[in-house]
Amino acid sequence: KSSSKLSHNFTNNNEIHTSAARTSTLLSTSTGFQLNPINITSYRLASTNSTWNESSLPDKIKSLDEYKALYDLSINDPERFWKMAAERLDWYRFPTKIKNTEFDYRTDRGVDIKWYEDGILNVCYNCLDRHIDHDSSASKQVAVVFEPDTPTETRHHVTYGELLRDVKKFANVLKKHGVKKGDRVTVYMPMVVDACVALLACARIGAIHSVVFGGFSASNVAERISDCDSTVVITSDFGLRGGKCSPLKSKIDQALKMKQCSNVRTVLVFERNYGNNADVKDACSDQRGTLEWKEGRDFWAHKEMETVNENCPPEKMNAEDPLFILYTSGSTGKPKGIVHTTGGYLTYTSLTFKYIFDYNPGDVYMCTADIGWITGHSYIIYGPLSNRATTVVFEGVPTYPDVSRFWNVVDKHQVNIFYTAPTAIRSLMAHDDKYVTKTSRQSLRILGSVGEPINSEAWKWYHSVVGDSRCPIIDTWWQTETGGVMITPIANAWELEPSSATLPFFGIKTQLFDKSTKKPLTPPNTGELCIQDSWPGQARSLYRNHERFVDVYFKQYPGYYFTGDGCEIKKNGYHCITGRVDDVLVISGHNIGTAEVEAALNEHAGVSESAVVGYPDKKKNQGMYCFVVLKDDTKESEELRKDLIKSVRNTIGAHVNPDVIHFTPDLPKTRSGKIMRRILRKIVEPDTSNLGDISTLTDPSIVKELIKKSPRTK
Ligand code: PRX
């Protein structure tokens, strides 16, 4: 295919855009979803007699047999499968090389992942322009529905045409401020349409965005700005969540006063105002007048957008050029700058979105994640927009102004596909069902779950109360590192079981290992979850730290990607994720490294050392338990306890809240000085009946003391 001209794949796109008629017939027959235990033998994944003989991928996956045929192809002939998947996108040069990957660090090449390596494309073009180029009516189609924090605030829907115009203009603003292909741009934004504009504009000119979640503290933002050497920051004056004002720009001001951010030369500030909504209570009103402004560094985005033109051709990017960096907590050390690239990431997020949620033209799709997390990247922006979907951007929280909010939004925008986190479901489930049942929700067709294990009580409530026992629950397991969904049901293709993410997506081959012997396990079994071969959406590295990437993900089980999660694979091949097996806590859907919390506690003048572990919590998935050893001259007190909680929130972010602070004179340590976390975990679980061998501790008596004092063992 020609390298100078866009090689549109008309056949494929026509198929996507004209499948509405077929869809309606399918929908009427696709209600075979049942909650009953499934017929085990028929779901064994082992073998299938059917094969895939077509030259392109189907528009949807309608049955388990169809899945099996394609799954076999994706595992046995990944080149062919992923070539067909790439054909769903538009390329300036279609790749001749599909897969070129090495997972084994012991080889000469070492861990090295490349997909579509000679392909050339632009992600923004694929998410916006191409829909209009293929079908001019797309410019009038709503791309983003904005649902503001205050439900009465009127905001317009943004069409593909409008979004493209704003993205081009903002891309020109970035260029005006010297941003070039390959430069890193830090984005610290609330959940507003401008956040999508910012990301797509970066993608358009080949700048690498690094989004930092708006809840992170100034020092955490500073750390992330300096780690990737951003010289330009995009933010908003304010954000609104649950009626509360979040002063984002002033946090950036604080961050930029820190020495490590001295290279930042430009801050582009989007304005969060209310347009014609004078009646909306402005929670930020008393702070608006106090906004700091550094001339020559700070610029209003809307004013800058008036100074540039609307012409901005998309940059031609190599498939392996980085698209973005996203920081995630590790079990030790500083947050990891996960690097995702262009061609593989978009191919993967685009295909997973289409199949898993069975997206049909005209559907309204809503994902409640924040743009600061991978779910926001992959399944609010890139996956949906590359499929010409209509995606809802929701600024608020599930409980404001009341606990019916989600379902009111569903009715207001006639949402068909709704994707949220178990933590939100559990918090809403605690209230009377009437807050759900008084809403219609008739538009809903598919319900998704992501971010943490969904316990069966929450699964069943989501299914029966929210979905009126009508909508399948798509429990999607994946990670920041995986780029897109890895283990998941495909809507209406097979039967579901509560709390099971069911089967691996195309191209994903799972393998369990025994934690102690490191030997592979044959299902049915429970063990540590690894992935056997590469898939296009996976992270390529950690930003400027490939060695750590290899250490964290590829050293535990040579030749495999180690997920850090435990998993049970049942007889029928269904997968149930059991949770993290390392020192990362998953609390209310947020990944929190215990090492980061310990570092924050240890910074406090009164603290000598600390150890943080998680315990099971019904609502939040896990609770955070902090053992704290004070310095000799510091006395424990309620005030100090509150102060420590506050300092953790201030150091990391308001979404990180220790549940228990347990003052102790000492921690259980081995003779070599290592804290025995295994014992601390057992104490807080609590499961103190079998603590295992504690004779290697320098002072075994401390264990008894800890048990006695722990509020979890009372
Ligand atoms: O422990 C798993 C849990 O969240 C971790 C990944 O977190 P993060 O990188 O922030 O990405 C979250 C959004 C994809 C995983 O290692 N997790 C995510 N989804 C599920 C899950 N645990 C169980 N079931 C899920 N569906």
Automatic annotation (TrEMBL):
Enzyme Commission number(s): 6.2.1.1
BP terms from Gene Ontology: acetyl-CoA biosynthetic process from acetate
Residue span(s) of domain AMP-dependent synthetase/ligase: 141-532
Reaction(s) catalysed (UniProt annotation): acetate + ATP + CoA = acetyl-CoA + AMP + diphosphate
Domain of life according to the entry: Eukaryota
This protein's UniProt keywords: ATP-binding, Ligase, Nucleotide-binding
Protein family per UniProt: Belongs to the ATP-dependent AMP-binding enzyme family.
Protein name listed in UniProt: Acetyl-coenzyme A synthetase
